[in-house]
Amino acid sequence: MTGSPRIVVLAGGVGGSRFVLGVREALRARGVAETTDSITVVVNTGDDLWLSGVRLQPDVDSITYALAGVNDTGRGWGRAGDSERVNHELQQWGAGWPWFTLGDLDLGTHLARTGWLRDGLTPTQVLERMAGRWPLGARLLPMTDAEADTVVDVRDDAGGGIRSMHFQEWWTRHRATLEPVRFDNPGIEDALPAPGVIEAIASADVVLLAPSNPVVSIGPILAVPGVRDAVRTTPAPVVGVSPIIGGRVVRGMADVCLAAIGVETSALAVARHYGARSGDGVLDAWLLAEEDAQVADEVAELGIRSPVAPLWMTDAARSAALAEAALAAAGV
Ligand code: FO1
After folding, report:
1. Band of residue 42 on the pLDDT scale cut at 50, 70, 90
2. Dihedral over Cα of 115, 121, 127, 131: its sign
3. pTM tops 0.85, yes or no
4. Can you list the domains of the chain with their CATH numbers?
5. Residue 142 pairs with which residues in a beta bridge?
6. Helix (H, G, I), strand (E, B), or coil: what is residue 260?
7. What is the mean pLDDT of residues 139-151?
């Protein structure tokens, strides 16, 4: 591949951030000049919410802060070294959610974003303006400019009924302990891909699915009308990275989410869930952890190439090596 391959990454928040940092590092290690379209990240916006009058975009902010090197690496979200003076005052007013922390620096992001949205900018334009503050080495696009927050239907033990709540309440208040029976993104059926998303996928040299949550991160991106078809029809090889290592999810609550859609928590089951492009799915290749090498043949039988590589992104070098393995699986 002469020059920089045009890489498109579909990504969610924390796992996505680490993987995108790895992709950027892998290109730097190749000595590839970072052009503005060497890496395009299509970011999940299903985690987004309105809170205390401001618009939050958690996965967008996680990836932006991580690429800018200003992210709180311990928590995986928010800004490094942040304080919570305003948050404390909001709690005193009983404003917002007592279980949801808004850091002072992070609030600066939400206030700037909300002001620009009120001025008439689109989320894409807001993100382009915010990303311009730092040399991120990647272009970030929201999956859509429409609001399509993830809603979780949970079984309400007391009444035995079903009740709905915003994904963020389910995740941050209940720590995903309430059994989810359904995930939905109301309004997504009328959403349009953000400007540039389809073109980036169609003109890519490789499309990568980050090891993000298949249900609440990659799922919403593929659910934006037109995106799944763009991934299925791009001339570029499509390579996914398993978010499951040794039959266990690396982060968060992906296993609980997968169970809700009837997918077993295994690298093979998620590969089957995404499906082969030769069938009605989206994958050409599925990067398996060494711990899951024993299912490589079964994945291959799905029509999905199944290279094996170390998938633990415990540091920048490991993330870069993983990204390099994904690029190699795509032949770029
Ligand atoms: N996650 C939490 O578990 N607790 C929080 O109080 C919290 C606040 C928060 C504020 C801004 C933001 O962008 C993200 C925040 N997150 C918090 C993470 C958020 O729930 C993410 O969407 C998840 O980590 C899933 O990606």
Report:
1. very high
2. negative
3. yes
4. 7-76+128-146+189-330 (3.40.50.10680)
5. 43
6. helix
7. 98
